[in-house]
Write a structure and sequence with these properties.
The protein contains 5 helices and 4 strands; from the N terminus they run E-H-E-H-H-E-H-E-H. By secondary structure, it is mostly helical. The protein has a two-stranded parallel ribbon. The longest helix has 27 residues. The chain is globular, with a radius of gyration of 14 Å. It starts with a strand and ends with a helix. The relative contact order is 0.24.
Length: 104
């Protein structure tokens, strides 16, 4: 599951897992409970590196029956694009005006 922050990836992922009995994994939650604090302290580059490393570990461990909640930027990495080939990837979109309203 990929998409912009606030698009509803976590909510949708959890719903799918509840309906299908799949395991839910949030890469953001694996990195830090305080994601903004982590990024402010370590930077986006370190966040993306760790996000990619965790996704690789997850893909090696789970072959099916799992929903992985990722950020939208993860698919910008060419190695990740190759790793996700043949996998079911869902891009979650939300209207920009709705995203702005949610943040305010």
């Amino acid at each position: 599951m990929v998409g912009m922050r606030g698009a509803g990836k976590s909510t949708l992922s959890k719903h799918i897992c509840n309906e299908l009995g799949f395991e839910y994994i949030s890469i953001d939650n694996m990195i830090s409970e305080d994601l903004n604090g982590f990024i402010n302290k370590n930077g986006w580059k370190e966040f993306r590196r760790l996000e990619k490393e965790l996704l690789i570990q997850i893909l090696l461990k789970y072959q099916k029956n799992v929903v992985v909640d990722c950020g939208g930027g993860i698919v910008e990495d060419e190695q990740v694009q190759q790793l996700l080939q043949g996998k079911n990837v869902i891009w979650v979109e939300k209207d920009l005006n709705e995203l702005i309203e949610d943040v305010q």
